[in-house]
# Entry
Amino acid sequence: MTSLSIHHIGYLVKKIEKAKDTFLSLGYQIEQDTLRDEIRKVDICFLIKDGYRVELVSPYAEDSVVSGLMKRYKNSPYHICYETTDFDAALTDLTAGGFIAIDTPTPAPALGGRDVVFLSSAVLGMIELMS
Ligand code: NI
# Structure
């Protein structure tokens, strides 16, 4: 298996500004303030605490990629994102290991345009892979 490093924990929230304020009150710091991802129709913000990075993800349109997840999970962590130095090899390894890609690699504006893809496992649920 290609080496993977944890980059962030994705956290679904309905109200991103209120959620951000609440994370700040817990001692998190803003790493990257709210940006709009018009490909996925979500607002995204990155927070850091104790070396852990949390990504707040909030849909701003009914047809956002996470609108269905929001109905199911409400406000909740919903993915761990892994970064790798060899994206194609990692994607091949994960797929061989039982993960199924649920979208195609697409640039993420909130991550400096780096490619990301979401994968699902019957035993782990959803993960994100980042180039
Ligand atoms: Ni993410």
Remarks:
- The first helix runs from residue 16 to 25.
